[in-house]
Write a structure and sequence with these properties.
Length: about 250
């Protein structure tokens, strides 16, 4: 609890310093939005169970703030299941490209109140405005059904947030929000966009990267398994045989 309080105090002081620097005598070049993270690296170790990263910042004048967090793009296949002869099996499927491995957003007020639909669409703010590219071969109706299933699956996995998180303003200028990364967060470079919006228009945009990476023993095993997959498979089989033999000997002695 004390550590959390100290962290909040440090964040507030840092944001205040940034804001003060932005108001030094160069009004023409003063930046209306300053943003930073408490940590630019999420280290996934063997015992990783998820973590929160604090995003904080300051605005020069009043305005609304929206934050989006997008993970690295990937291809995903959505399969439809059918029950045949009492067994559920995969039937039709659809492949989508440019699907973010993770997507989350946050805002100080409901997003639909802050900005009009055309602005949200142009800046790809919100899940409904993410441009998943479906491969040819599916009708428009099928694409909608599969897209809804894809989003639902990612939400169930905790990789797409169901609704925007809350951005709290500590004063008229200072704000903060927590970005949650679950235990199954994919590795890669994430892009965090922070939008300052005034009168329904984008006044300023700040982009900052965040890296999610495996570290320690798990990283070494992961890297070895991908670099030398055949050798890794052989070693895994040998270890399984040895473990089985040891177990059989132990039970035989009893």
């Amino acid at each position: 609890m004390a550590a959390s309080l100290r962290k909040s105090i440090i964040v507030c002081l840092t944001a205040l310093v940034f804001f003060a620097l932005g108001n030094t005598p160069k009004p023409a070049s003063a930046d209306p939005l300053v943003v930073d993270l408490s940590n630019h690296l999420v280290a996934i170790t063997t015992g990783f169970t998820g973590t929160d990263v604090l995003l904080f910042g300051a605005v020069q004048n009043e305005g609304d703030v929206i934050v989006t967090v997008r993970g690295p793009d990937q291809d995903m296949i959505v399969r439809q299941k059918e029950r045949k002869v009492g067994i559920w099996i995969n039937s039709d499927s659809a492949r989508y490209k440019n699907v973010p491995a993770y997507y989350a957003s946050a805002s100080n007020r409901p997003i639909e109140i802050i900005a009009p639909e055309n602005v949200l669409k142009d800046y790809r703010i919100g899940l409904e405005h993410q441009r998943f590219i479906a491969e040819s071969g599916t009708t428009e109706i099928d694409q909608k059904v599969y897209r809804e299933a894809l989003v639902r699956n990612m939400q169930n996995a905790g990789l797409f947030n169901r609704r925007p998180a809350k951005i709290s303003f500590l004063s008229n200028q200072l704000f903060r929000t927590d970005i949650h990364f679950p235990a199954n967060t994919p590795t890669g470079t994430y892009t965090i966009n922070v939008y300052l919006i005034r009168d329904g228009r984008i006044a300023s945009v700040k982009t900052t990267p965040l890296v999610v990476s495996k570290t320690g023993v798990s990283a070494a095993v992961y890297d070895f398994a991908h670099r030398y997959s055949a050798l890794y498979g052989i070693i895994a089989v040998i270890i399984a045989i040895i473990a089985g033999w040891i177990a059989s000997v132990a039970f035989r002695k009893r």
